[in-house]
Amino acid sequence: MTSPINRIEYEAMLFGRHLVMLPAGRSRRKGGRLDQSAYTLLSLLDAGGPASLSELAVATGLDVSTLNRQTAALRRAGLAERFEDPEGGQARKLRLSDDGRRVLTEEREASQALLADLLADWPEQDRTDLAELLGRYNRVIEDRSGRHWPRP
To answer: pLDDT tens, 82-110?
Structure first.
């Protein structure tokens, strides 16, 4: 018999794969503009507010050079903008542009509509329980890693 840990590990791998692949490959929605890394970074800026590359590195666990490439792509696409730290810090900060906020909202709504469709036949309590368990699972990872993700 397969242990719960074996099943959780396998199902978590599949869950991550399905979220990236649905509904249209790299994009979260057909005709969408955001790949998974862009969606994640824009969501982080949306929930946590403006951040420097070093602050993003702490939150994501990615190195600054990787984040520099990813945020440069966001800026080139007009989805984020850099600005001087209003508190006088040395580092420049990154924030969502108006277009970035609009695109993120569209992609999030499309993603949520897809999830609502996939879980339409589930009882409300099952959907509530899944949301609670996923949040609990993520908070344990955040506590262990020391990298807490802001929540709206």
So the answer is: 998 777 666 799 999 999 999 999 999 98
The gap from C-alpha 73 to its chain's centroid, in whole angstroms, comes to 16
CB 99 within 8 A of CB 79: yes
Q: Could you state, in order of their start, the residue ranges of all structural domains in the chain? A: 4-145
Please tell me whether the overall predicted TM-score, pTM, comes out greater than 0.70 for this model.
Answer: yes
DSSP run (H or E) holding 94: strand 92-96
Residue the block writes with tokens 């709206």: 152
Query: Which burial class, exposed, middle or buried, applies to 101 when counting CB atoms under 10 A from its CB (0-12, 13-18, 19+)?
Result: middle
Mean of pLDDT values over 56-65:
93
Domain over 4-145 is classified CATH 1.10.10.10: yes
